[in-house]
Design a protein that fits this description.
It is a single chain. With about 130 residues, the chain is an alpha+beta fold. About 15% of the residues lie in helices and about 25% in strands. A five-stranded antiparallel beta sheet has the order 1-5-4-3-2. A hairpin with a 2-residue loop joins strand 4 (about 85-90) and strand 5.
């Protein structure tokens, strides 16, 4: 996974999005979730984590240039699919993301504060597991 990137977001029409997708498709490899799917699309489920006083949310609303987000993300309702714990940091205009994949069955215990165990992990790269 790319360690850092610049993100620019634009609001475009559905028609423009489809034309753009068709244009870039011959230059990009499909990810594992889009292969064989209608319109090369799939659901993305995200759960954002925050403090009781929504500290992370307010940093985003206030436009702080140095902030982070904590989230869980998964791409399928299949219980065998990985759930990713992610830390997404923004430092000025650069975005950094770290993620560690875990088994869906480990999510409740990890969210309740229990320590991770090696058998929970799907991501084996030690550099990726700092988020868990």
């Amino acid at each position: 996974m790319q360690q850092s990137r610049f993100e620019l977001k634009y609001l475009i029409s559905e028609n423009t999005a489809q034309r753009l997708r068709d244009f870039v498709r011959c230059y990009l490899a499909m990810d594992e979730y889009s292969v064989g799917r209608p319109n090369y699309s799939y659901p993305v489920h995200s759960l954002y984590l925050d403090s009781d006083n929504l500290e992370i949310y307010w940093r985003t609303v206030n436009g702080d240039k140095n902030r982070f987000k904590l989230r869980l993300r998964y791409y399928s309702d299949n219980p065998d699919t990985a759930v990713f714990f992610e830390i997404k940091r923004r430092t000025k205009d650069v975005i950094l993301k770290q993620r560690g994949g875990v088994c869906e069955s480990a999510v409740p215990s990890l969210l309740s504060g229990q320590s991770r165990e090696d058998q929970h992990m799907i991501t084996k790269d030690p550099g990726s597991v700092v988020a868990i």
